[in-house]
């Protein structure tokens, strides 16, 4: 009996830091990136810098970077 479980989700590198992350775009609310609550302006800022998926740590750091840049 094979007890090895295969992930339904793709393991991809974070575009910013290279950390392996499990992409769950098909079930977004369960994805690790959903823990970072971004405003529409923050999403736009990040999407101008990166095209692919980012880990939650990088999303949080970019959110802080954006807020410092606009002086929040």
Automatic annotation (TrEMBL):
Source taxon at top rank: Bacteria
A Pfam family recorded for this sequence: Cys_rich_CWC
Protein name, as recorded: Cysteine-rich CWC
Native source species: Pedobacter frigidisoli
